[in-house]
Amino acid sequence: STKERSFIAIKPDGVHRGMISNIISRFEQKGYKLVGIKVIVPGMDLAKAHYAEHEGKPFFNKLTSFLTSGPVVAMVWEGKEVIKYGRTMIGATNPLASAPGTIRGDFCVDMGRNMIHGSDGPESAQREIALWFQPSEIAEYESATQSWVYE
Ligand code: DAT
Ligand code: MG
Predict the structure, then answer these.
(1) Is 22 annotated as a binding residue?
(2) What is the pLDDT of residue 108?
(3) Do 12 and 48 form a contact (C-beta atoms < 8 A)?
(4) Fewer CB within 10 Å, N side or C side of the chain?
(5) Where does the Nucleoside diphosphate kinase-like domain lie (predicted)?
(6) What pLDDT, on a 0 to 100 scale, did the predictor assign at position 134?
(7) 120 CB less than 6 Å from ligand 1?
(8) pLDDT per residue over 15-58, tens digit each?
(9) What is the value of ipTM here, to two decimals?
């Protein structure tokens, strides 16, 4: 469906390093549609809820502390297979295992500074979008380029 949605977030390292426009450009140029965006410094409750699946793992405290340490650009992107292909654009969790051409492959080295989050499946996408956004913060619209991106 061209209506599939993924939660994509630029983490504090990406914001501090001036990568907001670069990352947004990549999704925009692909043909995906931005339907939600905000910049927030998440509190610990939000960070822990976001990364709930990793609770108890050795890196959990570092991970949630880092997410709460600064600005996060939270976004919802829409388009055909945006969840799976968004992950392809982002690259592997370990940037040193990410292919060149991916966001993490092009810009990152350490796992704890891998700059960007993307939902890993339909259930996590739905859960994360609901966690970070009110329904009224999501824009419903048809892109003027719709028929030039989709046949
Ligand atoms: P991803 O962000 O690719 O979905 P994930 O959900 O497995 O990866 O983990 C969330 C974040 O936690 C990841 O972006 C970086 C950090 N992380 C994951 N595994 C780690 C590990 N083994 N050591 C340190 N940090 C890790
Ligand atoms: Mg993940």
Answers:
(1) no
(2) 98
(3) no
(4) C
(5) 3-140
(6) 98
(7) yes
(8) 999 999 999 999 999 999 999 999 999 999 999 999 999 999 99
(9) 0.98
Alpha-carbon 99 to chain mean position? 18
The span from the CA of 70 to the CA of 149, in Å, is 35
Asked if 8 contacts 77 with a C-beta cutoff of 8 angstroms, the reply is yes
CB 63 within 8 A of CB 112: yes
Q: Quick check: CB of 119 below 6 Å from ligand 1?
A: no
Residue 38 labelled as part of a binding site: no
Q: Is the CB of 65 under 6 A from ligand 1?
A: no
Distance between CA atoms of residues 127 and 141, nearest Å: 22
Tokens 């048809």 belong to 142
The pick from 50, 67, 83, 93 for probing ligand 1's pocket by mutation, whose C-beta has the most ligand atoms within 8 angstroms, reads 93
Categorise residue 101: left if φ over 0, alpha if ψ from -120 to 50, beta otherwise: left
87 annotated to bind ligand: yes
Q: Which atom of ligand 1 is nearest to the CA of 118?
A: 4
Using a 6 Å cutoff on CB, does residue 87 contact ligand 1? no
Tell me how many helices (H) and strands (E) the chain has: 8, 4
Q: How confident is the model at residue 14 (pLDDT cuts 50, 70, 90)?
A: very high
| Residues surrounding ion ligand 2 at CB below 5 Å | 120
Residue 85's DSSP bridge partners are none
